[in-house]
Design a protein that fits this description.
There is one protein chain. With about 110 residues, the chain is an alpha+beta fold. It has helices at about 10-15, 20-25, 40-55, and strands spanning about 1-10, 60-65, 70-75, 85-95, 95-105. Strands 1-5-4 form a 3-stranded antiparallel beta sheet. The chain has a two-stranded antiparallel ribbon with strand order 2-3. The longest helix has 15 residues, at about 40-55.
Length: about 110
């Protein structure tokens, strides 16, 4: 079975969170904060993943890294049984960032 989730962020609305240390600590792993330009994409990918599974989980149970081509890789910890594969993509255009995640669940 496949499930999908999408999230869109108005970049200017996210700006207020970039300096909120309690928010950053709750949502991001330290290595995810190294590239400030990718913060919104990482946030949107995590939101899209939670929408795909249909529930909120701990933000830090989702780790977003990037391969050598710049494609995001979602590493999910403490999810439990049933998650077979996760794939995601994010894109920016002007004022917006969008992320899309597809998950495959074991039957």
């Amino acid at each position: 079975m496949f499930k999908a989730g999408v999230d869109i962020v108005l970049n200017s609305r996210f700006d207020k969170y970039k300096e909120d240390s309690s928010f950053l600590e709750k949502v991001f792993h330290p290595f995810e904060l190294k590239d400030k330009k990718k913060m919104i994409s990482i946030f949107a990918l995590k939101e899209a993943f939670m929408k795909a599974i249909g529930r909120k989980i701990n933000w830090k149970d989702i780790e977003v890294t990037y391969d050598s081509f710049g494609k995001p890789i979602l590493n999910i910890s403490d999810f439990g049984e049933g998650l077979k594969k996760v794939d995601g993509s994010a894109s920016h255009d002007g004022e917006y960032t969008i992320a899309f995640v597809v998950i495959e669940l074991e039957e």
